[in-house]
């Protein structure tokens, strides 16, 4: 078995694990009433870009080998590093969902009895879910020995992040006011102590 094939297998296992983590929280969230929704076309575009870049397009590459022109020789260090980064992404993703609990939503929504969460990964960054997506994209870049399939994850994340994060923060400021402003002052957006 080639190093590139091992990277693809690790990526597939990571995507399955991502869905296994997300599914129960998605089911539970549907039972909690939405008090305010800011769904928009840009929200849908961002989610679609992330899904395409982190799952659909690399999945097509793994299944078909297309686009073969962008293939390069896989290296053990790259697959190892990609696996560690992807595992860290999954750990962050799970911790984020656990901390959010009933507050979690796939789109920009305030749920009944919504609370500001500041513990766990939220003590370090305001948007650890986005941190997990960034880590997934970087892990994918190292796992898949194809420039196109590797890069689309980071690009899909970037579209989602830049279309949504400011809107999300405005919604939190509207709902939580000075409490969220103070939280913003003591945390970074997605990279602890940096950004």
Automatic annotation (TrEMBL):
Keyword Methyltransferase: yes
Keywords for this protein: Membrane, Methyltransferase, Plasmid, Transferase, Transmembrane, Transmembrane helix
Pfam families per UniProt: ICMT (PF04140)
Gene Ontology cellular-component terms listed: membrane
Transmembrane domains' residue ranges: 6-25, 45-70, 76-93, 141-163
Chief place where the protein resides: membrane
Entry's EC annotation: 2.1.1.100
PANTHER family: PROTEIN-S ISOPRENYLCYSTEINE O-METHYLTRANSFERASE, PROTEIN-S-ISOPRENYLCYSTEINE O-METHYLTRANSFERASE
Name by which UniProt lists this protein: Protein-S-isoprenylcysteine O-methyltransferase
């Amino acid at each position: 078995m080639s190093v590139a094939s091992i990277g693809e297998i690790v990526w597939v296992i990571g995507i399955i694990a991502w869905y296994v983590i997300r599914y129960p929280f998605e089911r539970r969230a549907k039972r909690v009433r939405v008090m305010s929704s800011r769904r928009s076309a840009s929200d849908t575009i961002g989610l679609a870009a992330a899904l395409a870049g982190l799952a659909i397009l690399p999945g097509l590459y793994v299944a078909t080998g297309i686009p073969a022109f962008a293939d390069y020789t896989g290296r053990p260090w790259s697959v190892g590093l990609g696996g560690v980064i992807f595992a860290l992404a999954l750990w962050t993703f799970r911790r984020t969902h656990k901390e959010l609990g009933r507050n979690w939503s796939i789109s920009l929504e305030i749920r009944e009895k919504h609370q500001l969460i500041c513990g766990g990964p939220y003590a370090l960054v305001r948007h650890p879910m986005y941190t997990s997506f960034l880590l997934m994209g970087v892990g994918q870049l190292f796992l898949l020995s194809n420039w196109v399939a590797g890069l689309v994850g980071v690009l899909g994340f970037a579209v989602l992040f830049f279309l949504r994060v400011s809107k999300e923060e405005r919604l939190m400021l509207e709902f939580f006011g000075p409490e969220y402003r103070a939280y913003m002052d003591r945390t970074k957006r997605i990279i602890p102590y940096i950004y």
